[in-house]
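Structure, all six chains, one model.
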Amino acid sequence: MRPNKALEAWRQGRPTIGGWLSIGNAYSAELMAHLGFDWLCADMQHGMIGDHDLKQMLPAMSTTDVTPLVRVPWNDPATIMKVLDAGAYGVIVPMVNNRQEALQAVSACRYPPEGQRSFGPIRAALYGGEGYAAEANRQVACIGMIETRQGLDNLEEIVTTPGLDGIYIGPADLALAIGLAPVGDNDDPAHVATVDRIFRACRAHGLAVGIHTWSAAFTRRYLEQGFQFVTLGTDSGFMVKKASADLREARSKLKTIV
Amino acid sequence: MRPNKALEAWRQGRPTIGGWLSIGNAYSAELMAHLGFDWLCADMQHGMIGDHDLKQMLPAMSTTDVTPLVRVPWNDPATIMKVLDAGAYGVIVPMVNNRQEALQAVSACRYPPEGQRSFGPIRAALYGGEGYAAEANRQVACIGMIETRQGLDNLEEIVTTPGLDGIYIGPADLALAIGLAPVGDNDDPAHVATVDRIFRACRAHGLAVGIHTWSAAFTRRYLEQGFQFVTLGTDSGFMVKKASADLREARSKLKTIV
Amino acid sequence: MRPNKALEAWRQGRPTIGGWLSIGNAYSAELMAHLGFDWLCADMQHGMIGDHDLKQMLPAMSTTDVTPLVRVPWNDPATIMKVLDAGAYGVIVPMVNNRQEALQAVSACRYPPEGQRSFGPIRAALYGGEGYAAEANRQVACIGMIETRQGLDNLEEIVTTPGLDGIYIGPADLALAIGLAPVGDNDDPAHVATVDRIFRACRAHGLAVGIHTWSAAFTRRYLEQGFQFVTLGTDSGFMVKKASADLREARSKLKTIV
Amino acid sequence: MRPNKALEAWRQGRPTIGGWLSIGNAYSAELMAHLGFDWLCADMQHGMIGDHDLKQMLPAMSTTDVTPLVRVPWNDPATIMKVLDAGAYGVIVPMVNNRQEALQAVSACRYPPEGQRSFGPIRAALYGGEGYAAEANRQVACIGMIETRQGLDNLEEIVTTPGLDGIYIGPADLALAIGLAPVGDNDDPAHVATVDRIFRACRAHGLAVGIHTWSAAFTRRYLEQGFQFVTLGTDSGFMVKKASADLREARSKLKTIV
Amino acid sequence: MRPNKALEAWRQGRPTIGGWLSIGNAYSAELMAHLGFDWLCADMQHGMIGDHDLKQMLPAMSTTDVTPLVRVPWNDPATIMKVLDAGAYGVIVPMVNNRQEALQAVSACRYPPEGQRSFGPIRAALYGGEGYAAEANRQVACIGMIETRQGLDNLEEIVTTPGLDGIYIGPADLALAIGLAPVGDNDDPAHVATVDRIFRACRAHGLAVGIHTWSAAFTRRYLEQGFQFVTLGTDSGFMVKKASADLREARSKLKTIV
Amino acid sequence: MRPNKALEAWRQGRPTIGGWLSIGNAYSAELMAHLGFDWLCADMQHGMIGDHDLKQMLPAMSTTDVTPLVRVPWNDPATIMKVLDAGAYGVIVPMVNNRQEALQAVSACRYPPEGQRSFGPIRAALYGGEGYAAEANRQVACIGMIETRQGLDNLEEIVTTPGLDGIYIGPADLALAIGLAPVGDNDDPAHVATVDRIFRACRAHGLAVGIHTWSAAFTRRYLEQGFQFVTLGTDSGFMVKKASADLREARSKLKTIV
């Protein structure tokens, strides 16, 4: 089976940088796949990406060696199993609130007897190659998100869930969870302290830790702190930022019709 | 009928800045539409955009006041008429080589007796509103591209074609036409001279002139030269440039798995 | 943030008329959006509309001022959050059976601390504009449906659910719930009495009340009764009724091949 | 091979009534197919229908016995052959201006030696059944449109084109061709006279004649006049007319928010 | 209402052979529908088929008399109801573990008072025809899968669930459930014994029994054993097997570039 | 630039075996790409494949090393250029009738000064990699089809067209051209002689020759004869043949409901 290079790196504690996909399109996914990210995550939760798009985007990503991940909309076994069958090499599961929910996410990623994943890796075995059935339980990454009040309260029991490969932090939801406004790249001391707390709890138990950022600066900060996987930004975000900056620059001193 | 704000500006000789769409997707088109460009052009020639995508992208653009243009794949009346029926307020027609071809493009944009456009503005009248049938001949922009050896040879007869609203320059094809490599934002003196020649011929006959660029710097240069419509860049280009730059910045001094 | 004009009207007790979308298509949605309905509801429960269609239909509706609502297939937080992120200004949630289910629907519509909605209004903020994060909890309509035996039994506890904005009645399911055949525009006294009972319970607690109809006659009846939002009919229904009537008229006295 | 029931009727001079499809959607096409029209025409010229939609709509129509026709965007052999391969039982070809163009349309519909149609009836043979290869040249209807000044001038030579099965009149384009505004259901004496002229020329040479209408009244008028195939109206038109009428009726005397 | 011919056969204990659809495409579905299978099952669990594809595939299947079934991704009422509304004549529900889950599946297939199915058979009534509302509860097949350790433990209580029409066996998941590798067409005595045990339990209570195979040989074996519905193979599987075999044959003794 | 392995083999006179794609679907294309064919050809002429499908299928093919070709619907520069921009490494152009048409096909495949291809290899450069602009003229295969009476008459002038890389034979159209029925794998002496004549003319001038078959037997025959590229069969054909054969085998001696 084709190795999960991202998961391999995380297990060795090595840093990786990922890209986030919010545009439901094969071409933009293929472009992002060629840029040199260690992994890409197609966001089915908040992104404008549904299962119909995903079926086109996973092959587009598979034209390169980038590791394909999917954030599912919910901690729902049916969806987790479907995206794994379609060839995702890992899932990011939002809003894990306690041990039981973490176990449910893990279970959906593992074939019996380790879990309850149903067998039928229709495109996954095409992408993964020979040995998928035997090795998938060890190669498919199961990442939970801690981003709710309840998740923070149950931090310890979640990060010690057997079979869980890592924790991903969504800074905006985390901010809401601790009573702050849902902004990105958050410097608020309470936010920083909460991120640190999750980071330390994970590392204490050998879990990989990841986080979303909106800039190279925050990506570097977290990588320097020791995070295993940091999201640099989103397809749509990159597009909007560059287009806006260039438009501002081009228009300064000129009067166009808008 | 809703006025064609971009064409109005061009007729008055005012500068405008446009964005280019290469990703066949409603969401990325809607994002681009909200950035403040004067017009957007969905590129059906070289972009990954077909008629199926266009039907989703034109409504997405129509959520704002940006003027929607389409570059058709070819000087083909059937396609020109179809994109106008779908609500494009103008077409950019590639590889116009002579007066006869310019007339053919114009004719496809005008209802009889001025042209041969067939009547059925199915979505165009929805977008354009009352009066479309009567006013469309004056509000729909017909832009030809001069970018071949033959087109340059016949420059004068093309730019004096009755009913043609403007000329758009594709710098890469133009470079090939004069024996240069097909690079963008071209500083080669032969390229600059050819662009200037087209520009002057157009302005001498009151035609609007536009050109494609890959940077704010070249956009400003052409606007300062007096171009009416300049393309700042492409959805996918903005995305790739910003993502690459940020990734380089984030990764410097760090060793990740790629 | 762009105000939710429909919700505003309901809060003031003013009557509104809506259209229902069952065809998964951007063009038919845009046509319906131009007809002057106060709001449109894309039906993901019984309509032939999935999330892939919705992504095309919401921009098409957003070309006008019509308020975009979505009936989700189920009281499922993942789906509710996804359609709100895509820009729906309200959800109609089927088969709410008790207070706990009503609370679950409300919670999915509200950011913490009022609910559990996850943050990422990717297209919603584009459509809603500045202030979405801060105001969405007050501007997004959460409508529950009472249409089951159990829902009727728990009517009082449902209509007093904090944060619920209104109740929508599905006459066919309601008929089944009380032992009648699932017909539309139902004059059966038992049906009328049940509708009245729901209506009064809602109004007693200041909830907006809506109902589905299949005719202008029943729409008027309910509006005169004091309903806040009444569905006049469905895209496909309008099409089928007019085509059938015209075909009957055209064919009478003529013998064609069918 | 499954007989072409519409063409059979036309050859016998019997009247038929058809429906027009402008919405690119399988469900609306299937609904229209169940209403009892003799034939349906998917309009790829002015309708919001591309080849991607057509592939979904033809099977949807094939769930009933309605004869499936397609109006192609242009007199283009590639497109004509593609829609026939996909299972259309006839094409309506716009803007036939002279004998040579009529011959080109016919040729694209017939296998050698009668024409130049390329062999590969991939879905057509599935729909048509055994014998398609041998019988298609006689069962596939080739209909030209006369709707331009030039077409009127060459009326005689067009209607005597060997192999042409009928002529379809587009009243709006015809109006433009004779200097009138492009309205539907046209009572202008000049328009009526032109329609009559085409009708008589066709019938004199045994060609079936068809025309587009926007009402049962005009459909009956033309059927009574002796037309073989008359279009009653369009999917989107039926929808818009009924929705508008009902909305007007429901809203009279009521004040809603719009 | 159009009778459910497959279910009718099962009720009479007659054998049927079905095909499985894993490619999300109308054309391949229509091809499979023409081959003479008694029923086809579109697999939304492990197949590359989502709800967007299903809407195109069901009409394509409805061009023939083949009975259309759908395997849903999960025992989820929302999905079950949606595929029934779209015209499936039966659902295969994976991973039924106990009586309560079996009842939930049945309930989603039946209108009140027998179940909780919500009323709105939008395409189903089009396909099923007159009488759908009254007869659907008896004509729609509800099939559960027994394929987990827990399901085997609760075999008796599952197969005696009122309203359940049959049991479908997924050999690969069943293998995992009893500690074997997830291979198809399994001859392992433990596997054979388990299949036999399920078969006998079902037949003892009059339930139809079905099973998935990957070959004509195993299909015959199970039909001879008395199974009511056996899957012969999958669209993609047929394609891959024949292409591989032919390629091997063509290439033997030849040296081509791969 | 990634080398065109198929074209390289043809230039060296080595035999290759290809697969044909008629199903417009990324998953079936990816399956076919993994089977070991030397090249795959997506058939936009007779296949149920449009440009919207192609955009999903080319990335799916690009997950392997198989060389991606496209048969365009027509000798049309716009379409040829579009499929090359999308990443096809060669085009098969139907119905080339004479030198001038052959030159037109070649010209559409070559950037100036060798041809008139417009520059914008948007996905092609992504797939082809560095050097695409400089090397594409030598790496992109331009294959014409000789399959009409006229093409046979002008055989010599076609096969000596500068820049043409090969000739592909469509046996069915060829049969029609010489007065035979359009069957595949044709043993008729007149057909065999015509194929031989084309083969010899091509090889005499160093052109690669290819042909379509429907079986391993005919594939071997042509490879043994010295053809450079032979199509073994079609995705849909493989599926239908295997499913039919297995169904026949499974059903013999059994009586099922059909």
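The beta strands of chain D are 16-21, 39-43, 67-71, 90-93, 141-145, 166-169, 208-212, 229-234.
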